[in-house]
Amino acid sequence: MKKSDxxxxxxxxxxxxxxxxxxxxxxxxxxRRCVHFDFGAQLRQVVIQGxxxxxxxxxxxxxxxxxxxxxxxxxxxxxARAILEAFIAEHGVGERDLVVLNxxxxxxxxxxxxxxxxxxxxxxxxxxxxxxxxxxxxxxSGGDRAERTDDSLEYIARKLEIYAARTHPxxxxxxxxxxxxxxxxxxxxxxxxxxxxxxxEIKD
Length: 204
Fold this sequence. Notes:
Elements lengths: L3 E7 L6 H11 L6 E5 H11 L6 H13 L8 H14 L7 E5 L5 H7 L3 E10 L2 H10 L13 H15 L2 H7 L3 E6 L6 H10 L3
Parallel strand pairs: 1-3, 1-4, 2-3, 4-5
Helix pairs in contact: 1-9, 2-3
């Protein structure tokens, strides 16, 4: 069975991945329906509501990951895979649809595992400095931080460290794989509409 295509959104916390994913889900891309898989939101939902595909111990591990701003490593990727496959089934993702991945994969090991489920055909990297990240979060530039409880300066710094060390190298991984890369500069007031416009202006 052919795997569905996916677009991966990369960028540090606060760069605007979630608003961009929601925009793509609303409008689609190049005539194709997009479904937005926000992994962080899915994990928070698992903690609140549970998941029939996961055990109580798995849910407790998800809570630990969220509390410490950690990543699911290779030995616990089955948790992410169960959540992703349940999402795909729930949204009736077909061959012409695009899954917009936001927050998964977050390191090269996860990228190899995700490749067993979806075919990542494009990576959109939202690029901004730590200073811009802090300003965007303080101003809620993306309009998606109002109910977040993990935006302390210490927690943001920790997530930026993990992103630089573990997630940003995904660009090199996908470049070697021959996947289309789209590098988009993000400022303090950059909106999802701005990003979609920039994407349409970037030529191969």
